[in-house]
Design a protein that fits this description.
Blueprint: H1 13-21, H2 24-30, E1 41-45, H3 51-59, E2 64-69, H4 72-81, E3 91-95, E4 108-114, H5 122-133, E5 136-147, H6 153-174, H7 185-190, E6 193-201, E7 206-213
Parallel strand pairs: 1-2, 1-4, 2-3, 4-5
Antiparallel strand pairs: 5-7, 6-7
């Protein structure tokens, strides 16, 4: 199956995001970035136009990053965003299907999946976490910024409606395989990760969470 293609959205993604959510999606990407200043080897999947990486490198310019995205247009915009940033020289860019990316170096101490896991089917989510958890060193962390279903019944109804519209639009425009939101929490837990810190907005519709792999 071909990877989703966000090329058509790349020139418009910033303003579409601003119109629909204001600055809340960027808050979700970066809410926990100040907790990541000590990491040294990072894998970022589905980065898009580089706004997380830019914020991360401003705080941690010495980290080495592998950044993977299937959209050449998004990668081009991300690279341009990092122009002149001292840490930009430490980024390796990979244009390809992040679902099938095979790391080729030492284990990472941080994996980042902001608004990426929501593009996966349940089977793809299980496969990806199972495979990549092996490339996360003991004590390493996994950052997830994404949508979630609120605990409140009334807010869940609104969230379901909003997600249905978003999934329909993204399926048509980008060919994402997912048709519904899968909760990554049980899958992360099953592969030895536990939540370390969680922040949320919009009554729990947007969640930033930092998970840590056990030392065992």
């Amino acid at each position: 199956m071909k990877p989703p293609c966000f090329d058509i959205l790349a020139p418009h993604y910033v303003w579409i995001e601003a119109v629909t959510f204001g600055g809340l999606l960027q808050w979700c990407r970066t809410a926990l970035v100040d907790q990541l200043t000590e990491v040294r080897r990072v894998l970022v999947l589905g980065e898009g136009d580089g706004r997380f990486v830019n914020a991360f490198l401003l705080r941690n310019p010495n980290a080495a990053l592998d950044v993977v995205d299937a959209s050449p247009e998004m990668v081009a915009r991300a690279r341009q965003r990092l122009t002149g940033l001292p840490g930009a020289r430490n980024v390796r860019w990979h244009v390809g299907d992040a679902r099938r990316f095979e790391p080729d170096g030492p284990p990472y101490d941080l994996i980042v999946t902001n608004f990426f896991l929501d593009c996966l089917t349940a089977a793809e989510l299980q496969t990806l976490v199972e495979r990549l958890a092996r490339h996360l060193e003991p004590g390493g962390r996994w950052l997830v910024g994404d949508f979630a279903l609120p605990a409140s019944r009334l807010k869940r109804i609104g969230a379901h409606a909003a997600l249905a519209v978003m999934y329909l639009c993204f399926k048509v425009v980008t060919r994402i395989p997912a048709g519904r939101l899968e909760d990554p929490g049980p899958v992360l837990l099953a592969h030895g990760l536990t939540p370390e810190q969680v922040e949320h907005r919009l009554g729990g519709f947007l969640v930033a969470s930092l998970w840590r792999r056990s030392n065992g």
